[in-house]
Write a structure and sequence with these properties.
Layout (H helix, E strand, L loop, with lengths): L10 H23 L8 E2 L10 E5 L5 E3 L2 E3 L4 H5 L8 E5 L5 H13 L5 E3 L2 E2 L1
């Protein structure tokens, strides 16, 4: 029992490093896109917008994001009231979002006085 321990067990170190690597790679992909990930619908006549609109995102789960910040459904109106009514509003909705949910969001936005409301799609 007087044996010397002269070697280091590196398996726990490797495990920790792999977990850290996975965390870094996962967060790096979200940071580089800079947007909430949604799978957009496709359209043949999708255009490019040179200006910077206010972006409202509706995920497949029904969560709302205004300018990439999570917003509760009840607080959407209050959040949008802080923006000028002349702002262009771009609604990014996941392609599996229910039409009723999308229409109610657009109706609420237009009801607040925003007249330039459009839907973001991907060119097919």
């Amino acid at each position: 029992m007087d044996r010397e321990l002269n070697n280091i067990n590196v398996i726990p170190l490797v495990d920790v490093m792999l977990v850290l690597l996975v965390i870094v790679l996962t967060t790096a992909t979200f940071v580089t896109t800079g947007q909430v990930p949604v799978e957009l619908a496709k359209a043949a006549t999708a255009g490019n917008r040179p200006d910077k609109p206010l972006i409202v995102t509706v995920t497949a789960e029904g969560e709302l994001f205004v300018a990439d910040r999570l917003v509760a459904d009840a607080q959407l109106d209050a959040m949008l009231l802080s923006y000028p009514r002349e702002s262009q509003v771009l609604v990014r909705a996941d392609k599996v979002t229910r039409l009723e949910r999308f229409v109610s969001i657009v109706d609420r936005i237009r009801g607040l006085g925003f007249r330039q409301v459009s839907l973001e799609v991907i060119r097919a």
